[in-house]
Amino acid sequence: MFSTPLPRLRTACDRERVVGCELLAQFMRESRYRHLAIAGMKAGIVIFCFGYVNASWLLVWFAAGIGTIAYRLSVEKHYVRLNAFSSMQEQEEFIRALKPVYALHAAIWGVSTLFYFDGLPTSNQYACGLIMACISALPLRSAALVPELLRLFMNILFSVTAACVVVATMTSLINANGTAPVTGPAWISHYLFAIVPVFQWWLLRSVGLRVYANQRRQYEVQYDLESKEEQARALAESKTRFIAAAAHDLRQPVMALSIYADQLLERPTEHVMLAPRIAKASNAVVHLFDSLFDLANLDSGKVHLRIEPVSVRELLAELVHQFESVANAKAICLKVHHVDTVISTDAVRFRRMLANVISNAIKYSAPQTTVRIMATHVEDALRIEVADQGFGIPQAEQARVFEEFYRVSHPNHTGEDGVGLGLSIVSRLAKLLQCEIEFKSVEGKGTRVSFSMQYREERHQGPQTSFGVG
Fold it and tell me: Does residue 5 form part of some domain?
């Protein structure tokens, strides 16, 4: 499990941030005890060089190394205390703060080459070289998790080491002053040892970057698995809530139909009063099944469209006529502004998309308010907007209004609830019909949903099939 809290709605930025935070957390765990080992290896260099190198220079070098370690510890503790890995900006600031520390640390180790190269007995030289090999390999467990620090440390360490080897070699040749040429073990120390840092730099840098890539891939896979698991759990929970809500919504009209049927059998003379109630209950059942069938068809990924010319004026007039009685029953005024234009689209699905939005606008509006339906020209597109003066939707819930099975709860809404499929179907239909959908809502003031559809004269009329909508 990740130590970093995972957001509910995740994006690619969230994935990058969480993975980066986990890499830095592991970096800090790996560096917990390495400072003691580094200090011990510095002491080893001093011991092997003592008696052959100026003691003052060794003391200054050792003190500079210990001071760098102390400063690095203070930087790391400062950021750990602040818990400063929760955002990408804070992670970058932490890495920037460590860069000069790693640069100084690498330079100090590189300078130590001047102490032991060609100035000590061969055994002492190889002992110091072994310590340097350990120092260069040590970042593979920590700095490799932060590639910027790894590259900086490796580049400076081996650049300074190579420069010191060249300086020591040139100094040795100048001091020889015409004596016998360098041969035997001394030749190995002067020339072959100069090649070792270059090979070691390439090898350790390549291995370090591979360690980083593998560890990062591991955290990314873990993140994706946990995300999928939470999505599956959330989907299962939403399906369960949906089934319960659908069963509840279906149970009410079915029970009403049963009661009205029994009353009609017992009192046939009351058919005039019972018939409208039976029709209303039947319509509720039909509406629920229509929503379920719409969702199933869209989820199938294969939808047949019938593109034909559609008069915007006639379409909006039909919709107003359809919802006028419902709006009047709630004392809601329907106002429509249309343009006399024709678009090429699937008339049935385009009408259903608008009907779902208008139905929601009326359902969630208070009495004595207005629902406006406006069609306008915007450049080369038709824009249809449905605006209400209802309760509005809280900002925290607006990102989820188009999710399947999601219903916005509002304490002032006492009307009949749906099953949370209306806007999900609207979103899918908009994608199917190549409409751009825009949603804006202010809590306490109302909601506005608008659709923009380009005028496409080249769009073929007649039956078509659209894939991948669901």
Answer: no
pLDDT, tens only, 230-242: 888 877 776 776 6
Instruction: Tell me how far the alpha carbon of residue 312 is from its chain's centroid.
Output: 40
| C-beta neighbour count of 371 within 10 angstroms | 25
Q: Full-prediction pTM beyond 0.90?
A: no
Q: Do the domain assignments include residue 209? A: yes
Q: In terms of domains, do 100 and 218 share one? A: yes
Residue 251: partners with Cβ closer than 8 Å, 6 or more residues away = none
**CA angle (359, 363, 366) in 5-degree steps:** 135
Residues 6+ apart with CB under 8 A from 149: 95, 98, 99, 102, 139, 143
* Of the candidates 139, 44, 24, the residue with the CA atom closest to the CA atom of residue 91: 24
Instruction: Show the CA angle centred on residue 86, arms to residues 82 and 88, nearest 5°.
Output: 115
- Please tell me the distance from the alpha carbon of residue 336 to that of residue 118, in angstroms, as a whole number: 93
What's the rounded mean pLDDT across residues 135-157? 84
Instruction: Please give the angle made by the CA atoms of 204, 206 and 211, to the nearest 5 degrees.
Output: 90
Domain end call among 186, 209, 232? 232
